Amino acid sequence: MLYKLTVGYFVLFQIDDMKIIYTAKEMTEISCELIKAGKTIGFVPTMGALHLGHLSLFEAVKQYADVAMASIFVNPTQFAPNEDFDKYPRDLKKDVEMAELYGIDYVFAPSNDEMYSKNFLTNIHLDGITKVFEGERRPTHFDGVALVVAKLFNIIKPHYAFFGQKDYQQTLVIKQMVKDLNFDIDVIVRPTVRLENGLAMSSRNNYLTDDEKEKATIIYKSMLEAKSAISLGERNKEKIIKIIVGKMAEVPELKIDYVAVVKQKDLSEVDNFVSGDEIVILIAAFLGKTRLIDNMLITV
Ligand code: AMP
Known about the structure:
The protein is of the alpha/beta class. The protein has helices spanning 24-36, 52-64, 92-101, 112-115, 134-137, 141-156, 168-180, 210-215, 217-231, 237-248; strands at 2-7, 10-15, 19-21, 41-46, 67-72, 106-108, 160-164, 186-190, 254-263, 278-287, 290-299. Helix 6 packs across helix 7 (168-180) and helix 9 packs antiparallel against helix 10 (237-248).
């Protein structure tokens, strides 16, 4: 947001400070005003503990929209009771500073009560793609994601919403929900940001020791090995999976949850790929108690 600043003879334009909004009502009022004024809104939903992956989405917003908004909300409905909701890293002050630095105009940071009142009764449930891989291991996860994202879309009313390829299955769930529920929103997916050693950036990397962070790079290395086998002509799904599992075995501390090689479009499985197939490697693995996910898109 710009406002005019006059210094002597000079008229300067200065960017307003970023604003933090805590209530849905105020957030919606602001969005409605902006839309009435003809502005487009770009929105990045996050759970905070911001890192360069999130910041790459913040940077992208400005290429699409007049006003950049982000939410910081650790959404309880997407965590199962045995998961890490309580210990999930939270540092609103630092996050807000980073968001401001990366050009966000409004941060929406609601409380749990603001998002889910005591008599909250609605669920959103998607079939199909929520039943496999992440959805199979975390059966309530994607319903919780869909619910919070739908609520945030209704509160913020963005024209564009930005998600990371890092959570590939999530991007399919969101696109499906946007289509099914007629949200008039462009979903934009941006590439996974990695450390130089290949480790995908993630808020959950905060749980890892430096040694574990180094060990976790085997996930990326194993996908690269599969990619090079595919480029050399390997087309058989089981053989590709074997290459990945074999490479990951170099770090015995890493316990594989699943390794899959499937079609990008709908996560469907085929035994043998053909040239031109757009496929995705999906991996989830535990390092100690920390669960890491990663993926790689490949055109065969
Ligand atoms: P989260 O805070 O984990 O809910 O993530 C918020 C958004 O940031 C989601 O769309 C994630 O997919 C995205 N994101 C997380 N890590 C990365 C990464 N390493 N690169 C790109 N996007 C990411």
